[in-house]
Write a structure and sequence with these properties.
Blueprint lengths: L23 H19 L2 H8 L3 H5 L5 H11 L13 H16 L2 H13 L3 H9 L1 H18 L11 H17 L5 H18 L6
Length: about 210
């Protein structure tokens, strides 16, 4: 018989009661909701505690300041982003990635990110956390898509990081940031058929 033993509770570097990891998800979800509602400037540690239904000490055992709280949460947003599977086709992969980006920006995480954009102009740590969190996930997903497509002979080398790669999701991001109009399946279908498919066809290897 195999006997398992639960891991010990995480001890706070500041001492006191042990940290309960089971509350992390609840607290992070509360932070995202509040950021979307009030933005970075009006966010307070007291409000986070109240929204999460925990004591203030629980918040301060995890983060010393609001800045630390937001940077850590932003860096961790990648956990909420589900990367599409390999479909076996660059066209189907690209369509799934459009859905990924649209779903993310319309989620609580996307609303929180949008609320942080003004603060990012003056907070380099927020910019770095965004790059290492959501942007890293998106870039990794596109890089994997291009690598698979190149291996299958569907596209020429060097597509990762190209203008073509950036353009695939550009209209979705623009609509999210500038217009606030819905990113429904009909719009994604239009973007895919009008913009993405021609870009993918143009990315095919040159024929001899």
């Amino acid at each position: 018989m195999i006997v398992t033993q639960d891991p010990p509770p995480v001890r706070s570097p500041r001492g006191g009661r042990p940290r309960d990891p089971s509350r992390d998800g609840v607290i992070r979800a509360a932070i995202l909701r509040l950021l979307a509602q009030v933005g970075y400037g009006a966010l307070t540690m007291d409000a986070v505690a109240a929204e999460a239904g925990v004591g203030k000490a629980t918040i301060y055992r995890r983060w010393r300041t609001k800045h630390d709280l937001v940077v850590d949460t932003l860096s961790d947003i990648h956990r909420a982003i589900a990367v599409p599977p390999d479909t076996g086709s660059v066209e189907r992969d690209a369509r799934a990635l459009l859905q990924l980006v649209a779903g993310t920006v319309q989620s609580p995480a996307g609303a929180a990110i949008r609320s942080l954009l003004p603060a990012m102009q003056h907070q380099p740590a927020l910019v770095q956390a965004f790059r290492e969190g959501p942007l890293a996930v998106w870039h990794g997903a596109f890089a994997a898509m291009w690598a698979r497509a190149e291996e299958r002979g569907e596209v020429r080398p060097g597509m990762d990081g190209s203008v073509t790669s950036e353009a695939i999701s550009a209209l979705v991001v623009q609509r999210w940031l500038l217009t606030g109009l819905p990113l429904d399946d009909g719009y994604l279908d239009d973007v895919f058929g009008t913009v993405v498919l021609p870009l993918l066809r143009n990315a095919r290897p040159a024929t001899a």
